[in-house]
Each structure stands twice: as C-alpha cells, then as structure tokens.
Amino acid sequence: MNSTQETQSVAGLKLTGQVLRVLAGVALLTASAKIQVPFWPVPMTLQVAAIMFLAASYGLRMGTSTMLAYLAVGAAGLPVFAGTPEKGIGLAYMLGGTGGYLVGFLAATIIVGFAADRLPKLAILPAMGLGLVALYALGLGWLAQLVPGDKLLAYGFTPFIAGDLVKTVLAAILFLGAPKALLAKLRGTDLNI
Q1: Nearest alpha-carbon partner for 82 in 64, 110, 66, 101
Q2: Contact 135, 101 (CB under 8 A)
Q3: Phi/psi of residue 44, each to 5°?
Q4: What residues are paired with 44 via a beta bridge?
Q5: How far is CA 103 from the centre of its chain?
Q6: Rounded CA separation 160/15 (Å)
Q7: Pairing of strands 36-37, 44-45
Q8: How far apart are CA 138 and CA 104, in angstroms?
Q9: Which of 40, 104, 149, 150 is 20 to 30 A from 21 via CA?
Q10: How do residues 161-193 score in pLDDT, each as one tens digit?
Q11: Is 138 helix (H, G, I), strand (E, B) or coil?
Q12: How far apart are CA 91 and CA 11, in angstroms?
C-alpha cells in the first residue's frame, strides 16, 4: 500500500468513526429525552445532562454536529424529542412551545463545546452554567410569544430549573471524573480510531 492509499484509508476510518460517534450521540440524546425520572414538581428527562456531557466530551465541532443531526432527525419527523409522538412530530413540534429550548440545546452545546476545547478542564462547570442560561434565555424568549407573560415562568422555568441544575452538576462531575482514555475515545483522538 502506498502512502496516498494509506492516508485515504486512515481518513476513511476517521470519518467512519466520526459518523458513528454522531449516531451514538443522537441515540443518547433520544434516549435521554424519553427517560423520565420522578422529580418535584414535575418529572424530568435526562436530556440536559446528556447535552452537557456530550458537548464537553465531544468538543465544539463534534458536539455541534451531533446536536444538528439530532435536530435534523427530529425535523424530519422521527420521534426523538421528549413527548413525541404524543405531542406531535417534526417541524410542527419544533415550532411549538419547546422550539426555543431546542435552539437553546444547540446554543448550550456550542458554549460548552467551545469551553471544553479551549479552556482548562475545571472551567467546564461555569461553561455548563452559561450554557444553561443560554438554553433558558432562548427557550423562554420563544415561549413568551405563545403564553401570557404572567404564566411564562410557571410554564417554562420554575418547574424545571432545580432538576436542570442537578443534571448540569451531574454532567460536570461525570465529565471531570471520566478517564482520559475514555474522553480521547469519545473525541476520536485516541490512536485506535
């Protein structure tokens, strides 16, 4: 095998690994949206924890690619979001009350992925906090167009924030405690593609 063929072979393996990681991330995000954990005042999904962990583990490029793939699959009509298919599917669901939160998922992924790539590892918790702020800002901004102002916090913030804070801290702990070899594998930077 000459060096050009070897380079193409390695590039093909790397691309295959990236595609598989994106698919695994979409599967994890889907599962996290469907699993409900009893919590007060409302049951919660594990989605925020999955978003924060994937963004930190995958980094900016792979994390954003994964979130965009997840949103595209949902827009295409596959029931990957929380409450689907019961509450609708596809673009109709995405344009409903949770649409801003879905955009917020992408914003949080970008913020956390950027921090994971460029800041010291311990900066991940404040980055996740900032990601959560962006998620809620976009979610509440969108929801404000659909519900009366006096109901906004009751519908889109108060019942969820405690659970999301717990999930964010959990994601940070999992990321910070993950072995370097596992994080290298998740990012595709280990030698065994």
Answers
A1: 101
A2: yes
A3: -125, 155
A4: 37
A5: 11
A6: 37
A7: antiparallel
A8: 5
A9: 104
A10: 999 999 999 999 999 999 999 998 888 877 554
A11: helix
A12: 35
